[in-house]
From TrEMBL:
InterPro entries: DMSO/NO3_reduct_chaperone, NO3_reductase_chaperone_NarJ, TorD-like_sf. The keyword Cytoplasm does not apply. It comes from Streptomyces vinaceusdrappus. NCBIfam families: narJ (TIGR00684). This is Nitrate reductase molybdenum cofactor assembly chaperone. Keywords: Nitrate assimilation. The keyword Metal-binding does not apply.
Amino acid sequence: MTGFELLYQAAALCLTYPDDDFRARLPLLREAAPQLRGFTDHAAATEQGALQAHYVEVFDFKNRHSLYLSWWTDGDTRNRGMSLVRFKELYRAHGLEFTDEELPDFLPAVLEFASRTGNIGMLTEHRDALDQLRSRLTAFGTPYACVLDAVCATLPPAPTGARP
């Protein structure tokens, strides 16, 4: 176990679409994961519609801020299919079935998996991609960058010369 399970669960919730359930959980998230205060304070002070519009602007219009980890390593190629299968197999090996609501490499799903199992292998394997996403979110000027900052701070550094 890594000791960061609560942070990973909170980060997963922060990186999903901010619906009414997110708004209801926000006070708990602010208390449970002080590392995410930069984002949760912003979310608490932002009107729901504006927060939702910002999420769509940041994550849904371009792959530049993709929350799909295999996109960073495989792009939109055939190889991505095999990467997605690896994620599903890992979940199954831990007794979890992945629903088809999202792809299995969706960062919030991977964070939730790490939270439930303590297995950070996929996060570590995709550390370089997480660093690139964090850098791009920071350059974009979005509070979502602090969520990636907190997650990356829990992981070992990417190997030298790592490239997605």
